[in-house]
Amino acid sequence: MTKWTARDIRPQDGRKFIVTGANSGLGEVTARALANAGAEVVLACRNTDTADAVAASIGPNATVAKLDLADLASVRSFAESVDRADVLINNAGVMALPQYKTADGFEMQYGTNHLGHFALTGLLLPKIADRVVTVSSIAHRTGKISIDDPNWEKRKYERWPAYGQSKLANLIFARELQRRLSRSGSKVASIAVHPGVAATNLQSHSESFLDPLMQLNNKIMAQSAEMGALPSLFAATSPDADGGEYYGPRSFLGTRGYPGKSGSIARSKDTAVAAQLWELSERLTGVTYQFN
């Protein structure tokens, strides 16, 4: 693959994209680039005040809708408001938080990063014409899926392993979704991506001494949010992006650079765990997927 950039996005006129967490960081960059290519973009965000300002700066191609992935009632309300979409980009996320619970009692990182997007995708799937893009992380390599205790109720909570579990779940989900779409004969593609190490405000909300250290790392080591968003933009728009694949930066052990196919740990390819995670996620969210 050549050095693919946002300039390589083909015209997206007439196409509708939903980007979760598009009020800042990678989501904002992604939404802005899609709108610049002519797409209609829905900024699906918890913080609608910030999202309104971003949408106003983008222009008439951008609209804002309320979506709190940590509240399944909000997920359902948003899904009911959507008439159609070509592409859903599951971008929003939280990282390395203290032990909080979602409105439905799930561990906040697992509940927001995985279960919220799992429920959202399932509810929207009959309305999606082309692709689902799910943002994982190189931190998936540290993750282990606990089917028995996904919400850290039986173990001592550890913020970074919890984050790793949630991002591993994102990757496993994206691949399992593609397998089920393929079996059903659907033309919709499910693609996973990661941004490498990108400078965003995600690293400033851990509510710990790590916040200033991660912000310093953003200045010294991280690539820009514009570069970090390229895998999402490639997966969402390029005819060369394949369902079931995992795309991310190609240089410096996947931490930075232009997008290409990315490696992942063996646990992310375990189909038995994927089936268990899927069943658990349907049970916890109450969302059962319908494949045509």
Task: Summarize this structure as a short list of keywords or feature phrases.
9 helices; Rossmann fold; alpha/beta; globular; eight-stranded mixed sheet; 292 residues
Could you walk me through the main structural features you see in this protein, from its secondary elements to its overall organization?
About 40% of the residues lie in helices and about 15% in strands. It has an eight-stranded mixed sheet, sandwiched between helices. The protein has helices spanning about 25-35, 50-60, 70-80, 110-125, 160-185, 210-220, 225-230, 230-235, 270-285, and strands at about 15-20, 40-45, 60-65, 85-90, 130-135, 190-195, 245-250, 255-260. Mean pLDDT is about 95; it is low at about 215-220. It is an alpha/beta fold and about 290 residues long. Helix 4 (about 110-125) packs across helix 9 and helix 5 (about 160-185) crosses helix 9 (about 270-285). It has nine helices and eight strands. The two termini are about 35 Å apart. The chain is globular, with a radius of gyration of 17 Å. Strand 1, helix 1 and strand 2 (about 40-45) form a beta-alpha-beta unit. It has one domain (about 5-285): Rossmann fold, CATH 3.40.50.
